[in-house]
Write a structure and sequence with these properties.
206 residues, mainly alpha, Four Helix Bundle (Hemerythrin (Met), subunit A), globular
């Protein structure tokens, strides 16, 4: 296995680690109080740092693969899979925390299922659909929006708005910026999904 593919696997491994620092732990009513206290106060900052590292592996594996001609079908698959797992897992955590609507997550998941289905049909014809420019822009806007949302709690504290949990979050300039960034990522999610389906319509014939 070449280096770009290993970086994609590292990104997949970092997914549960990221979520671990986003969500308090609760097993059938049992909760580690000291750990959950840390998560509620500083966990999101750690999660943001891990998420950024994971996102950088996405940039690195693509650059290395192109520079050293290490582009493979497995690499295309792993890169796309790692991006989907990372983004969807973090968004699920944000839904659990109450920061974003489950309806928005459903749109993201439906888009990914549709494109994955298209890729399966293409694979049956011995073809691989690599990430297109619109898809890459979508991924970039998602990464930026998610990173911002992760830093929201500390930004709210720095600018004097306070942060006592997402359930008590009041609209302000910090949250509005987060909503706008996430809204842009959702628009790109829909547009890029339509772009894939339109350009891949030949696979849907018959």
């Amino acid at each position: 296995m070449n280096l770009p593919n290993k970086l994609s696997l590292i990104r997949i491994f970092l997914v549960p680690v990221t979520v671990l620092f986003m969500l308090p732990i609760s097993f059938f009513g049992w909760q580690p109080e000291s750990w959950n206290a840390f998560i509620n106060s500083n966990g999101m900052i750690v999660a943001a740092i891990i998420f950024i590292v994971a996102s950088l592996t996405d940039t690195a594996d693509g650059m290395i693969a192109r520079k050293y001609n290490l582009i493979t079908d497995l690499g295309k698959f792993l890169d796309s899979l790692a991006d989907k797992i990372l983004v969807i897992s973090v968004l699920i955590a944000f839904v659990e925390l109450g920061r974003i609507s489950a309806w928005l997550l459903i749109i993201v998941i439906l888009r990914e299922f549709a494109i994955s289905g298209l890729r399966m049909i293409a694979a049956a014809n011995n073809e691989v659909i690599a990430a297109k420019m619109m898809g890459k822009i979508k991924t970039a806007t998602q990464m930026v929006a998610i990173t911002y949302l992760m830093f929201e709690p500390i930004l709210l504290k720095i600018f004097g708005f306070g942060f006592t949990g997402y359930a008590n979050l009041q609209p302000n300039v910090i949250t509005v910026i987060g909503n706008v960034l996430f809204g842009i990522s959702m628009v790109m999610c829909v547009i890029s999904g339509a772009d894939y389906l339109i350009k891949g319509k030949k696979y849907l014939k018959g």
